[in-house]
């Protein structure tokens, strides 16, 4: 009787076990979304946005001849369809018992984001590319990519919202917001030709926050933080170089190389923006791990 009374109450302190298929699929889907951003950027950079006048079908079919701008516009739709299906599968996998609640919610948000994104894509075609819709489409696309990446990170056991490295978190969370505003300004430049001065000026804040986040992350000696810190250190200078190049190409798109190659380099600047955003996001999420888990 007395031994029973002395037994401590059973507490369920087991951390979520994680779910490897979910984590792996979230990573693959985030990778596919990254490629989709490039494919979308090529639609804008080559001026192919109105090559296919209808939606959801293309010239009334699912397989139009892939000639000229149709290659970029319809190709982008096909990749978008694949990413939408992959995100749906991720949302189904998110219901598995080992998936932490934060990762599950993020996967559901990503699915919602992809559906709104497809709607905006359709609207921008049917309304003949109004800048407000095209800019929203450009910004939400990067947001969907971030949500998929976040679902992958949050599904790994140990990514708990503990005290972590608070300075790294503050700088990288601020950096993430600054980089997001920077790509919104970039989208404004691409779709209206306005705001280039603001975009170049705001790049300074991204550079300063990247230096602070990267430096404080490096000093923690945490392996989990050093990877994204290196990514940030590579992405930001690359982005500045590509930005300068995009500026020259805007003045004359065939100045140094042919039209398609110059479109690809301008689009690389968009992809570099996604990498910068991803590096800030990884640092912000991983710095919230408890020091022991990192
Ligand atoms: C579902 C996921 C999708 C993602 C992540 C995505 C992403 C993107 C991105 C990043 C751009 C480049 C924006 C820029 O350069 O500023 C773009 C452009 C474009 N996308 Fe999508 N897209 C998606 C779905 C769709 C769909 C379903 C359509 C259907 C028509 C579509 C139509 C377009 C068009 C027409 C453009 C060119 C807009 C312009 O030049 O103003 N997108 N997309
Ligand atoms: C780290 C800093 C930077 C980031 C994260 C960034 C990001 C971006 C992104 C994502 C876009 C495309 C937006 C879209 O349509 O979706 C863009 C456009 C652009 N950016 Fe930047 N940018 C940066 C720095 C710069 C700098 C320093 C310059 C100039 C020297 C520059 C010049 C441009 C130009 C000219 C465009 C329009 C390109 C075009 O019309 O194809 N950027 N930027």
Highlighted features:
294 residues; mainly alpha; 2 domains; 73% helix; globular; disordered N terminus
Give the topology string: H per helix, E per strand.
HHHHHHHHH
| Gross geometry | globular
The portion of residues assigned to helices is over 70%
CATH class of the largest domain: Mainly Alpha
Beta-strand content: under 5%
Number of helices: 9
How many structural domains in the coordinates?
A: 2
Overall mean confidence score, pLDDT: 91
SSE diagram, text form:
Blueprint lengths: L1 H5 L13 H26 L23 H25 L7 H26 L4 H24 L11 H27 L3 H24 L3 H29 L7 H28 L8
The protein binds protoporphyrin IX containing FE (HEM) (2 copies).
The site of one protoporphyrin IX containing FE (HEM) has 27 residues, from helix 6, helix 7, helix 8 and helix 9.
């Amino acid at each position: 009787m007395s031994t029973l009374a002395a037994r401590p109450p059973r507490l369920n302190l087991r951390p979520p076990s994680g779910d490897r298929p979910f984590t792996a699929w979230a990573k693959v889907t985030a990778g596919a979304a990254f490629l989709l951003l490039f494919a979308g950027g090529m639609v804008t950079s080559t001026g192919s946005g109105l090559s296919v006048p209808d939606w959801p079908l293309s010239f009334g079919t699912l397989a139009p001849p892939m000639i000229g701008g149709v290659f970029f516009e319809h190709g982008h739709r096909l990749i978008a369809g694949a990413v939408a299906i992959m995100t749906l599968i991720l949302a189904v996998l998110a219901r598995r018992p080992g998936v932490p609640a934060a990762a599950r919610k993020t996967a559901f948000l990503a699915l919602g984001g992809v559906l709104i994104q497809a709607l905006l894509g359709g609207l921008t075609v049917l309304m003949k590319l109004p800048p407000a819709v095209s800019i929203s489409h450009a910004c939400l696309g990067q947001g969907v990519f971030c949500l998929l990446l976040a679902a992958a990170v949050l599904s790994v056991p140990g990514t708990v919202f503990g005290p972590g490295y608070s300075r790294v978190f503050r700088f990288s969370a601020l950096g993430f917001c600054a980089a997001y505003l920077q790509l919104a300004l970039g989208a404004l430049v691409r779709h209206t030709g306005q705001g280039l001065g603001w975009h170049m000026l705001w790049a300074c804040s991204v550079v300063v926050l990247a230096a602070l986040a990267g430096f404080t992350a490096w000093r923690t000696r945490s392996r989990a933080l050093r990877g994204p810190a290196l990514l940030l250190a590579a992405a930001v200078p690359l982005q500045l170089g590509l930005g300068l190049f995009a500026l020259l190409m805007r003045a004359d798109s065939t100045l140094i190389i042919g039209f398609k190659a110059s479109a690809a380099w301008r689009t690389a600047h968009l992809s570099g923006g996604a990498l910068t955003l991803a590096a800030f996001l990884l640092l912000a999420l991983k710095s919230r791990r408890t020091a022991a888990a990192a």
